Amino acid sequence: MASLDDLKKRIASVKSTQKITKAMKMVAAAKLRRAQESAEKGRPYSEKMNNVILNLSNGISDKENAPKLLSGTGQEKTHLCVVMTSDRGLCGGFNSNIIKKAKSYFAKILDEGKELKIITVGSKGNDQLKRIYGDKIIENISFKESKNANYFDADKVGKMVIEKFEAGEFDVCTIFYNQFKNVITQIPQAQQIIPLNNEGEENSSEESYEFEPDEDEILSNLLPKNISTQIFKAMLENSASEQGSRMSAMDNATRNAGEMVDKLTIEYNRSRQAAITKELIEIISGAESL
Amino acid sequence: MSEEFKVEIVNPEKSFLVKDDVSEVVVPAFEGEMGILKDHISIISFLKPGIIKILSKSGDENYYVEDGIVEFKNNNLSILTSTIFNLADMDKSKQQDLLKQAEEEADKTDINDQSKYLADQKVEVLKTLN
């Protein structure tokens, strides 16, 4: 059995850990509110963007010559995966969930004999993926300096993706991120952004638009922007998810630390009492023997 | 019958401005300035760098934009843009910063004609603001 002193030290150390996790939980909660707010504020833009593109792509008469970003290159040989994770740890299963989802997708692609290229956004994803897929990672981006997700960063990623697409480096692009549902639930998502996937979305508006200049030109201007927008949306969802995930992870940690303190305190009291009893017995039996 | 319609400006971060008592909006469309009044035909167009003028009962407002898309439908005007500044809030130094950026961009030699044109436009618009 551990000595009284050791127990005391352990209780103190668990308590200070608890203080840290508690503080981290509070910080995450405050950040979560902000992140959630900006995720919600960012939604109108991506929704509107989607709507316009939907209207446009339905209006396009000549499907054969549609921009490649919309219709694809006509083959599916090389896949580019953009895996978006956080730059910081201690956020529960947040990163592992994305990685798990991404890995199963990677395995599927490689099984089909297709080529795989990976861009990691956020250092945690890179750390986890480089062991197995190190040779597949072509780029690693990290926005450690930016405090909040901002459009400028997303645009940088978007431009890079488009550049690579135009250079013919890949045919299909998928982004991986966590969609924020609520504090305890984040759903890892795989979203295909090139070619644009409009399946399942019914065209509700039959209205015809006037276009200025013509559809093709607007589309070819709009589609690159849409890529950045989708990436930005993913970044916003991700940052809200990260904070939510961290909050619940830290909440759990705080609770576990509390339980541990209770357990250790009981053990401490028991051994203290045992020591006292032992001393008493010694005194009494000493007195009796006289 | 009122002659007013609704305008909404959104940027990626948030809904920038919503106004429903607007009588006319002038946007710098790609092929020239375009005034939009109530009951305009549904239109989609995109913007070049320039000034958006919003005329309404509660006063006129001017915004500087660098790019964007406009969609007008059922008397709803949506403007999607990634860079927008209210001219009333924009001071000289901010303006100079933007101008410098734009000039640097325009001076690049390795850009294609369209980006070159857009950069030149930016410089031109920003200069007229002074």
Question: Which two chains form the greatest contact, residue counts included?
Answer: A-B, 30 and 24 residues
* Percent of residues in beta strands of chain A: 5-15%
CATH fold descriptor of the largest domain in chain B: ATP Synthase, domain 1
What is the straight-line distance between the termini of chain A? 33 Å
Number of helices of chain B: 2
**Which bin fits the share of residues in helices of chain B?**
25-40%
Shape of chain A: elongated
How many helical elements of chain A?
6
* Quaternary structure annotation: heterodimer
Tell me the number of strands of chain A: 6
Overall SS class of chain A: alpha/beta
Characterization of this structure:
The complex is a heterodimer of chains A (290) and B (130). Chain A folds into 2 domains: 4-21 and 254-284; 24-249, ATP synthase, F1 complex, gamma subunit (Pyruvate Kinase, Chain: A, domain 1). Chain A starts with a helix and ends with a helix. Chain A has 6 helices and 6 strands; from the N terminus they run ααβαβαβαβββα. The mean pLDDT of chain A is 86. In chain A, α1 (4-59) runs antiparallel to α6 and α3 (94-111) packs parallel to α4 (123-133). Chain A has a 5-stranded mixed beta sheet with strand order 3-2-1-4-5, sandwiched between helices. With 290 residues, chain A is of the alpha/beta class. In chain B, 25% of the residues lie in helices and 44% in strands. Chain B is built from 2 helices and 9 strands. β6 of chain A pairs parallel with β4 (43-47) of chain B, so a sheet runs across the interface.
